[in-house]
Amino acid sequence: MPAMKRKLNEHDVPEATEQPPLPDSTFASFGLEPRLLRGIRDQKWAAPQPIQSKAIPLALEGKDILGRSGTGTGKTAAYLLPILHNILRRNQRETSALILTPTKELASQITKVAKSLAAHCGDSIRVQNIAGKESAVVQRAQLAELPDIVVATPARANANMNNGALSLKNLAHLVVDEADLVMGYGFQEDLENIARNIPQGVQVFLMSATLNTELETLSGLLCRDPVILKLDDSENDSQRVKQYVIKCGEEEKFLLIYALFLLKLIKGKTIVFVADVERSYRVKLFLEQFSIKSCVLNSELPLTSRLHIVEEFNKNIYDILIASDENEILGAREKDDSKPPKKKAKGGKQDTGVSRGIDFLNVSNVLNFDLPTSYKSYFHRIGRTARAGKSGTAISFVIPKEKYRKHKPTTIPQCENDEEVLRKIEKHQKDGQKLEDYGFDMKKLEPFRYRFADALRAVTRIAVREARVKELRSELLKSQKLSRYFEENPETAEQLRHDQVLHHPARIQSHLKHVPDYLLPGGRKPEDIGFVGLEKERTDKRRIVKRKGRVVRARNGKVDPLKTFNKKGRGKK
Q: Boundaries of each DEAD-box RNA helicase Q domain copy (predicted)?
């Protein structure tokens, strides 16, 4: 692939490169239902992505498919379009498709795409998401209407299957999206039970960003003779990412992120990855000192809030999203692949973080504020940019061994092995990929140090804790499930609102918002305006009466005691 230059349009969104479609590769050439083609037109998809061009014809033939393709490359539509087409052709009221995902966020995203593609199908296609926190009674009522497509986590699907609410006797299609994560999240028992209860001849789709032994195990459990589609689009996307490394001290991370955003050294939408929830709020509060807006996405927030934040980020309401990736499953597995991960709780409630599953739109930059513990996590993170033919930038802050624990207020244990992780990342770079030194001259940031230190001191542990509590209070007030409780207990809601606006977690310092030109690297020096006297120039037009070289009184007749030698205020006559 020829080298590609990074290019942003007037909205700071990376431009897509011209990629001619494959011969005869159009959605209409697949013979899809006209109503689906109208839904595709609404999505403004000009031509099929590579995974779609290969998977859709095979799926329409009834083949089982095991596909490897990166997130955001069109996997969802690759299995949804053939399923929707077959449901419309059968025209029977029954649950004929089950889509299994590892997380509620991904389930919600798939449901939204399915409804958008079927927007012109009326009541012919009904999609139901049961991955949420609805009660068993509510889900039983939802499934009693026999939706054509059911989207769920394996645990929810298995539970509803066991209590008789979900019937699989007429199932025609089974999809496992992000299949490697599904197997890694303690869902194996649920999947085995589902596999025992599905009828023979069910078409199976296994979609994943990677092909590994877990996926092969799942394939043997569910598939007959799957067609394996191993696309190189994820590698190609990675090659379009310009990767940079900045080696710095622990406190200098905050100085660098301040400089990058305030001086606009990086443009466009940015995802900042940090180590944990506490760290995400610390970075957010630090940036607020300089009036830099950002939003936080972490596992501590409720599902609806997380989905709302992603939606606002995709709508360009926020240009900076700070994401904590503390529960990244691949990072944990990297340490010891011989031990299977433990199931955290019944139902597999383990969070993927945000480096997999959820689709973010038009991300120009990925900033690894804290380097992950695994090279696999690193590549999944930088895969958030340079999607669908676009270019992107990935910048990683790395703490050298000799600088670790030199600034205790900003030290975290995860940074201890940064250099070792960096070596693994360099070792696993594919052809056409490389890590470059950003070449940042830290001396040019010396004028900013006093401002940065002042802002960092304002972000205390108490401020971070209050920010987390304030965010949760806000989410409680917006919760639909608690709305009735607040109606019956208005004093509780009033207390929450009062506490929410009582004070800001960190002390905002307005003088930090503006940067004088003389502080900028290579900026203007203060202009030389010549000699300025200490005495203020007289601006009044009063005529002074002088007698024998001595001031006595002004024209208005009043005596100025300071201009006489008489303490009584009378000049000599």
A: 25-53
Q: At residue 6, does pLDDT exceed 60? A: no
Q: Which residues contact 210 (CB under 8 A, 6 or more apart)?
A: 68, 180
Output the CA angle 216-168-223, nearest 5 degrees. 20
Whole-angstrom distance, CA of residue 446 vs CA of residue 465: 30
The answer to whether 150 and 198 have CB atoms below 8 angstroms apart is no
* Distance (Å, whole) CA 288 – CA 278: 16
Angle between helices 104-117 and 34-42 (to 10 degrees): 120
CA distance 552 to 198: 112
Pull the structure tokens for residue 380: 């999944």
CA distance linking residue 520 with residue 204, whole number of Å:
59
Q: In the chain, how many H helices and how many E strands?
A: 20, 16
Q: In CATH, what class is 28-231?
A: alpha beta
Q: 151, 107 in Cβ contact below 8 A? A: yes
Rounded to an integer, what distance in angstroms lies between the CA atom of residue 391 and that of residue 375?
A: 21
Residue 497 phi, psi dihedral angles, 5° rounding:
-65, -40
All CATH 3.40.50.300 domain ranges of the chain, comma separated, are 28-231, 236-334+352-459+506-519
236: part of which helix (H) or strand (E)?
Answer: helix 233-239
Phi/psi of residue 318, nearest 5 degrees: -120, 140
Which residues, at least 6 apart from 130, have a Cβ–Cβ distance to it below 8 Å? 139, 142, 143, 150, 151, 152, 156, 157, 160, 166
Amino acid (one-letter) located at 533: G
Which residue in 251, 293, 290, 289 sits closest to 272, CA to CA?
293
CATH superfamily of 236-334+352-459+506-519: P-loop containing nucleotide triphosphate hydrolases (3.40.50.300)
Q: What does pLDDT average to over the chain?
A: 76
- Which structure tokens are listed for 416? 């201890």
pTM attached to this predicted model = 0.61
